[in-house]
Amino acid sequence: MIDPTDTQQWKELSEHSSLLKVASLEELLNDDSSRIEDLSFEVGSLHVDFSKQLVTKDTINKLVALGKELNLSDKIHDLFSGEIVNISENRPALHTALRFSESSDEGVGEVVRDELERASDFSLLVRSGKWVGTTGKPITTVVNIGIGGSHLGPVMANAALRPFRKNSIKSEFVSNIDPADIDSKLHLLDPETTMFILNSKSFTTAETITNAEAAIQWLTNSLGTEKDFLARHVVAVTANSSAAESLGIPKENIFAIWDWVGGRFSICSSVSLAVMISVGPENFQLLLDGANSIDEHFKSTDLSENIPVLMGLIAIWNRNFLGFGNHALLSYSQDLRYFPLYLEQLEMESNGKQFRVDGERVTHHTSPVVLGGVGTDAQHSFFQLLHQGTTTIPSDFIVFCKPSMSSDALPEDTFLKQHEVLVANCFAQSKALAIGSSRKSGEKRSDGNRPSTTILGTRLDPYTLGQLVALYEHKVFTMGAIWQINSFDQEGVQIGKTLAASIENDLSLSEGFLDHDASTQSLLSIYQQRRGL
Ligand code: F6P
Asked: Are 378 and 330 in contact (CB under 8 A)?
């Protein structure tokens, strides 16, 4: 397997980076009249502006040539055609089939279609009030219990699509094993009108199973065990139906996902059942259509104009050639407030790795630390560092031309005016980061030259959300493909999971937990003393 750093293009990019490291973004932006045309792209309703990145057209050409040298187009083809791209787990990664029911693999297309139909029918029953609890009352609250990819996608999409939600159905999300999470939700809920979605691909995740058991206990306390309350109040989404059944969930209440969908790539599946219930199957289909439009773009557009490819290549440029170790995701949309969290998992769990698919250690950096927040709030917390800190953090700004108005609590004029101020703030921040204020002196000085991409949408609607999700999924794939790592496993996470189980055991042991490092052993002892164990 070829080490990316041994390619001709990697070497050329390294040389080329010495020019860009001393370039001025202000000059690049002012001196090149074709820069905006060269570095701005559109797909669907999204306008993507890379002109505030520390790149030139030549940089892009060289990055695209790197992609070609490392057979990126073949790897994209392999992804879509169901090749085993998740080598360590010996699976394809067919999340794109979730939004393209005419998948080339007929077996896959069929199960996707069937399952989507089942989930749609079910969500319509709940939305219409025809699905009633054991005491005959309609379900009014849906609680998703899941973690990681079985939480972050649904919670993000549910918030993002606020104006499209059916207001008579409330959604809650429980992820943390900290009992405070489920406790804080349950004490406000009525068991007679509450339904739980147990969302776990593996159905072995400790957090989810523990919270699921707590939820079932809570239902039992109020609804008793005589009636078959599980059938009316609990459903599951999993690839491990037998484990769900052994918890007492009837078969008809189990929605399938498959091992060929990675948890963090599963937002377009029944994992988003809570979202489907809250926004309705038609809106959910629009989300799938939006994601599919980007899949088509990713699959068929030349690398030089392929937006997710360019997002990935520019991220590699920032990480490997300009040496920036962080990346910020700044969403100028309150409804998109969970998108940075969602992307933290998508990017870092996928590409936070240092072993290539052939088992060799990489010879370059991989995923930057991805952090983020919602504008304008983040301006009043960590933006100071973005502007003047000693670390340069390339950023993505996401903003929409039209606001998401969903009620008449405020007059339309007021709403529009306020949204204008939001947009002005977004544009001002990316401009300030790029240009700075070197004319000021002393500590007021800001050097600028801090790169960013702006993604400008028309409005945050289901289709646009689907587009955004797929853009970042394919950006992540592009980066993994260039780095020759497997973006679809998460071996690092497993180590802590296994240890947690053994430490849990030791917490209540009076002696015999000597098999730990000195710090862990000391923490165990102090814990026991303070709990009086
Ligand atoms: O954090 C590890 C992980 O396996 C994620 O990849 C996944 O999204 C999450 O746990 C939840 O897994 P499951 O859906 O199997 O409960």
From this structure: yes
